[in-house]
Predict the 3D structure of the following.
Amino acid sequence: MVAGDNRDMGQEVEKLKEIIRLDSDLQNTQDLDILLEKILYQARTFVNADAGTIYLKRGNELVFSYTQNETLQKKLPAGQKLIYSVFSYEISRKSISGYVAETRETLNLPDVYKIPQDAPYSFNPEPDRISNYRTKAMLTLPLITNIGEVLGVLQVINPKDSGQEVIPFTSEDELLIRHFASNATMALQRAQLTRQLLLRMISMAELRDPKETGPHVNRVASYSVELYERWAQRRGIPAGELHRNRDILRMAAMLHDVGKVAISDVILKKPGRFSEEEYEIIKTHTYCGARLFRSRQSEFDFIASEVALTHHENWDGTGYPGFMDLDSDDPPMGRGRPQPRNGDEIPVYGRIVAVADVYDALTHRRVYKKAWKEKDVLQEMKNQSGRKFDPELVDIFFEALPHLKNITAKYPD
């Protein structure tokens, strides 16, 4: 009896240590999208759940934000990821997630196909039919702040035993996930505040340049993370470093053109072609943006400055601004501009954001142009391999294209 008690106590201590480690990991993640992905993964891992979904509440709607499914993922070729539709729906007690969001109750369902007919909620089997997956046990709980606001809903599905058989969630699982969700909600609040601060900076740039919108910067940032992750995996970069860099890059990429706040709107909003002198002034936005982060008190400052400065450098050395002293009060212009960088002289984050930014600009309408047809966009990306873009990143771009399109759908204009 004593030995059994000691074993149980040891397991509880290990679970407590794991909770503390996961809490710390969440608190160190700053970007909202990266955090949502991490919350879902860690919640699943903690109770050995095969799948899960996380929804965010916006107004009276739930937004289907992230989903993961280990069984379906294993059916894909190595290096590929699941692609899912992005959608939102009005909160209603008829659905399981809607019921949880509205009532703030936790639902622990051993088999969603055996929900009593008199239950106020029901399970929609259509996603299972489309994906050829069998949802069974489901634990759904609200993400509630310390002031009682519902931020969203966390749903974990099909926990498995040591023999990989689906089993019901236990009352202990429910207790642990509730604790995890409480801490995850605090991290979400902080990440949402960080996102709003970034978008406010973007809004200042948008006052000068109408194309610097929230959807545009979110797409560019998400494309950049997708490209970076694949680039880093090719090089065997350790998982911890990769995830830390993804987190920082996504925020830095959102601010790639923030330096346009320093450019006169007489120039930025000009409907026709720029004169040579005006174009030289436009180019200084890279320098102005980089100077906003020149104190470099954190890794974010370093990467944000690097991205702002170098995302218009070209692989063949024809870009701008080149090697520059950010401590100088005035950026060199015209013939006084430094020699541009080329090839691997350009930091990888700048090379990545260059691909992401151009792809987004080509695929979306601007005040001065219509959106290009997809075949023309893809041909242009190929044409610029080895010219404007790092050839390896162009290859990665085409590998990631289905996921980039999914990102486009997630952040429409």
Notes: The chain has a mean pLDDT of 87.
